[in-house]
Amino acid sequence: MTRKDSTELSARVLLSGAGHFLIALALTISLVLAGILTASAETSPLIKMIDIKGNRKISTDTIYSKMISKAGAPFSKNTVQEDIKKLYGIGYFDDIRVEIEAFEGGVRLVYILIEKPSIISLDFQGNKELETNNIREKITLTTGAIANLALITDNAKKIVVYYQSEGYWLATVVPVINKVSEDGIALTFQIQEGPKVSIDTITFDGNEALSDREIKRVMKTKEWWIFSFLTGSGVYSEEQMRADLSAIKELCQSKGYIYIAVSDPRVVLSEDKKDLDITISISEGDQYRVGSIKVKDNTVFSDAELYEQVRTAPGLIFDRTALKKDIDKIIDLYMDRGYARADVDPIVDVNKEEKTADITLSVIEGGIYKIGRIDVTGNIKTRDKVIRREMRLDEGDTFSKKLLMRSYQRINNLNYFESVDIRPTPKVETQLMDLDVRVEEKLTGMLSIGGGYSSVDKFMVMGEVTQTNLFGKGLHLKLKADFSSRRTTYNLSLRDPWFMDKPVSAAIGVYNEVIDYPDYDKKATGGNISFGKELSEYVGGNIHYEIEQVEITNVSDDASSLTREQEGSKLTSSISPSIWRDTRDNYLDPTTGSRNALYLTVAGLGGDNHFWKMVVDSGWFFPVIWDTTFGIHGRYGAVSGYNSHEVPLYERFYVGGINTIRGLGFGEGGPINEEGEEIGGVQQMIINAEYIFPLVNEMKLKGVLFFDYGGAFDQSYSVSERNMRRTTGAGVRWMSPLGPLRLEWGYNLDKRENEGQHKWEFSLGGFF
Q1: pLDDT over 70 for what percent of the chain?
Q2: Residue 230 DSSP SS3
Q3: Which of 469, 499, 496, 494 is nearest to 480 (CA)?
Q4: I need a labelling partner for 475 at 20 to 30 A (CA). Which of 21, 150, 576, 628 fits?
Q5: If you write DSSP's letter for every residue of 98-165 in order, what string do you get?
Q6: Which residues of 427-459 are buried (b: 16+ CB within 10 A; e: fewer)?
C-alpha cells in the first residue's frame, strides 16, 4: 500500500461524523419525498417496527436508549434526524443510514450502522528522551478502544503537554493510522521531540507597587538554575502557568488591588531554540481599603462572637486572602458546633470614588449534623480496630471539624500509611454525615543503619530492625544492635499500644551491652517493663520499671578515683514515672505544636545503686513563611545519689553528638578529669535552635541551619557562661526511598585543647 493509499484509506476510515450526517439526512428526505409518506398527507403514519443492523461492539439496547423514535409512536422526520445526530454523538459509528418501508399500515425504520474500527495496536515512534511506559500513562487510549478521531487527536495533545512539562517545548506528535482489517486499525503516534528548552528569564511589565521578586515568589514556574535537574524547575508548562497567573492575581488582591489585570504570558523562543523568555503584563489599578464590615443572617452565634474571628477591619488595606481566612474561621466555628454545611457569602460593595470596599458577611448556617456511618477502606494488613480507635468521632456523635482533623492527625501519626484521607459525605435528608476513611498502606518494617565517630567509640556502626505494625495489630517490635571497636550492644523490645484492647500501652524489653572504655570495661544486662495511658487528648503518662546488672572490670592503675570506686558488680532496680503533653501536627516532620515532657527515675528499690534522676524536655515548632519552620528545643537534667551512694558513671550526662550538641564528640561538652577522661556531669542544660526549610518538596528533601548551646556540669565544672559550649552548622534531612536520612555538619565555635574544629555525623534508614 502506498503512502497516498494509506492516507486516503485513513481519511475514509475516520471520515467526519458531520459529513455522514448530511448524507444520511439527504437520503431520509429523498425517501420521504419519494412518496412513502404521501399516502397519509393528513396524518403521520405510526412506526410499527424499528430494526437496528450492523452493530457489533455496542448493544442494541444501548442504541435504543439513545433514540427518540419508538415503536407505536407517530413517525416524524425531525425525530429521525435527531436520532441520527444522537447516534453519531456516541462516537462509535462511521456511517448511519435510515431506510423507511411501508409495513402493516405504518412504517418500519431500519437503522443501518457502520461502526468505527477498533485500535488493534498502539505504538510510539521517535521518542528517545522519554520512556514509552511513561508516555502510555499520560494517555487514555488503549488497544481495543474505538478509533475515534477526536479522541485520538486529544491524546496526541496530551503527549505534547507531557513533553512540554519535561522541557521539550517544541515537541510535535502526529497520529498515523493504518487500516489492517475491515474493523481494525494500527495507530502510531509519531513523535518529534526536538531540543530541550529551558526558561532563561521571567520578566514583568506594568507592575509598580509589587516588585518582581514578590511576584516570582508566588509562582511555581521558575527560571532554570543549577539544581533544576533535581527540582524539575526551569521548564514551561501551560497548565502550571495558568495556576501562576491566578496566584499573581491573588497576591495583588491581597495588597488591595481589587481590579488587577494579568495578561497571558508572551513567550519568545531564542534564536538557537534552547531558551524561553517569558513576559507577563500587569495592570494593578487603584489600591482599595476596607470601608465597613458587618455580618448578617447569623442566629447561632452573636455578632460579637463572629467579629472575634475576623481580623479584617475598617481602614485596613483590602486583603482578599486575609478575608478568606476570616471566613474559614467563622465556618470552622460553626462546624465545631455540628453545622457541617455552614457557609459564608462575602458581599463586597466597591466605592470607586473613595477607593473603599464595604464587606458584608452573609452567614448560611444550615442544620446540625450527626455522624452516620464510618467506613474504613484500603487497609489490607492493618486491622480496622487499629484505625477506628484513633478516631475522635464515633457514629452518632455531633459533627466537629476540629475532631475530624485530630482524627486525621492521629491516624497519620501511626506511620503505617503512605496516605490518609477522611472524606465526609453529607446526607441532607437525614442530617447525617458519613465518613469514609481511606488509607494506603506502606511497608512498616524498617532497617536502619547509622554511623558516627566519638572520642570513646571511634567509628561506630548502628543497626536497627523494627516492625511497627506487627500482625496488623499495631504491635511495635524492635531489635537494635550497635557495634564499634569498643562497644557491642543488643536490645530487643515489644510494645503494644492497646494492651488487651484497652487504652493502655504495655512494653517489655531485654538488652545486653559490653563497652571497652580506656580505663575500664563495662558489661550490662537488663530487662524492663512499662505501662502507659493517655490522660487526655494531648496528655499522657507512663511508668517504667527496669532491673540491670552492671559489671565494671579491668580498671587501669592510673584511672581516676571516681572510676576505681565503680569497680565490681552492681545491681540497679529503678522505677521511672513520666508525663508528657504533645500537640505536634506530625511526629516525624512537625511544623507546628510542641512536645513537653518530665521524666523521673528513682533507683534503690532493692539493688546496690541509690540515685534519682530528673529530665525536663521541651520542643516547640512554629511555621514561618514559604513552608519553613523554626524549632526550639530545650533540655535540663539532674542526677544525684542518696543514702551515701555516688551516681554510677553510666548514669551521668554525656553531652556531645548529633542528639545533644552537634560539632562536639561524645562527652566533650562536659567535665574532663585530670587524666583526660570525659566523665559526664550530674547536670545538663541544652538548647537547640533550628531553621528548617524545603529544598525539593517533591523529594521531601529539607535543609536545616542550627545553633546548639549548653553542656554537662558537676561540682568541679559548674554551670556558668564560661562552661557553656556553642556550635553551629547546617545539614540536610531527606525521606529517601531507603528511609529517613540525616546528614549534619557542626562547627565548634569555641574549640578547646584536643578537640576538633568541626564534625560530620549522619543517620540513614531503609524500609523493607
Answers
A1: 90
A2: helix
A3: 494
A4: 576
A5: EEEEEETTEEEEEEEEEEPPEEEEEEEES-SSS-HHHHHTT----TTSB--HHHHHHHHHHHHHHHHH
A6: eeeebbbbbebebebeebebebebebbbbbbee
Give first-to-last CA distance, the chain, whole Å. 55
* Number of other CB atoms surrounding residue 613 within 10 Å: 20
What's the pTM? 0.63
Cell of 472: 496488623
Place of cell 486525621: 408
Each residue's pLDDT tens digit, 161-219: 888 888 888 899 999 999 888 778 899 999 999 888 889 999 999 999 999 999 999 99
pLDDT digits (tens, 9 = 90+) for 576-585: 999 999 999 8
pLDDT computed for residue 374 by the predictor:
95
> Nine-digit cell at 692?
528548617
* pLDDT score of 61: 86
3-state secondary structure 473-530: CCEEEEEEEEEECCEEEEEEEEEECCHHHCCEEEEEEEEEEEEECCCCEEEEEEEEEE
The one-letter amino acid at 697 = N
CA–centroid distance for 11 within its chain: 47
Helix, strand, coil shares of the chain, percent, nearest 5, are 20, 45, 35
How far apart are the C-alpha atoms of 194 and 160, rounded to whole Å? 11
Low-confidence ranges of the chain (pLDDT < 70): 1-43, 229-232, 448-460, 518, 736-740, 764-768
Q: What type of residue is 507?
A: A
User: CA angle, 187 as apex, 182 and 189 as ends, to 5°?
Assistant: 165
**Length of the chain in terms of residues written:** 768
Q: Cβ(440)–Cβ(642) under 8 Å?
A: no
